[in-house]
């Protein structure tokens, strides 16, 4: 069985921006034959951060457009949120529902969660392997 990884939005932003954290995550997880997965709301979460960074003057419109293009072209396997909601709900006391969906998918796939969010990486009760910078 191939190695599977589930990317959350924090990892997606770091990887798309090619930050030191993003490069570290890429080197550790993207290997030949590996499968990269995410939940459908990943795209909205990442685009929200890109928009926020444009409004704050952190990104130019041109750079933001390139990031959105990269996001749309990213060859990830994507699953819907709804079937994962019950599992995500069980984690509501430790993490957000958004994050719980990524963890639920990792559990379902027997995958490693990839995140740049240290709070999520260190949250109790995830019961999945985690890669964080």
Keyword list:
single chain, 133 residues, alpha/beta, Rossmann fold, 5-stranded parallel beta sheet, 7 helices, globular, toxin-antitoxin system, VapC_family, TypeII_TA_RNase_PINc/VapC, hydrolase activity, toxin
What report would you give on this structure?
The chain is an alpha/beta fold and 133 residues long. It has a single domain, classed as 3-Layer(aba) Sandwich (Rossmann fold). It has helices at residues 9-16, 20-29, 42-55, 61-73, 85-89, 97-109, 118-121, and strands at 4-7, 35-39, 77-79, 112-114, 130-131. A 5-stranded parallel beta sheet has the order 3-2-1-4-5. Helix 7 (118-121) links the parallel strand 4 (112-114) and strand 5. Helix 1 crosses helix 2 (20-29), helix 1 packs across helix 3 and helix 3 (42-55) packs antiparallel against helix 4. The longest helix is centred in the middle third of the chain and has 14 residues, at 42-55. The model has no long low-confidence stretch (mean pLDDT 95). Its cofactor is Mg(2+). Residues 5-124 form the PIN domain. Belongs to the PINc/VapC protein family.
SSE inventory with pairings:
Layout: E1 4-7, H1 9-16, H2 20-29, E2 35-39, H3 42-55, H4 61-73, E3 77-79, H5 85-89, H6 97-109, E4 112-114, H7 118-121, E5 130-131
Parallel strand pairs: 1-2, 1-4, 2-3, 4-5
Helix pairs in contact: 1-2, 1-3, 3-4
Task: Offer a concise description of the structure.
By secondary structure, this protein is α/β, with parallel strands linked by helices.
- CATH homology superfamily: 5'-nuclease
Our count of helices gives 7
Mean pLDDT figure? 95
Strand order of the largest sheet: 3-2-1-4-5
Query: Count of DSSP E strands?
Result: 5
Q: What number of domains? A: 1
What low-confidence regions span 5 or more consecutive residues with pLDDT below 50?
A: none
User: What's the gyration radius in Å?
Assistant: 14 Å
Here the CATH topology equals: Rossmann fold
Q: The biggest beta sheet, please?
A: 5 strands, parallel
Q: Which word captures the global form?
A: globular
The ordered H/E elements are EHHEHHEHHEHE
CATH architecture: 3-Layer(aba) Sandwich
Structural class: alpha/beta
Can you tell me the CATH class?
Alpha Beta
Strand proportion: 5-15%
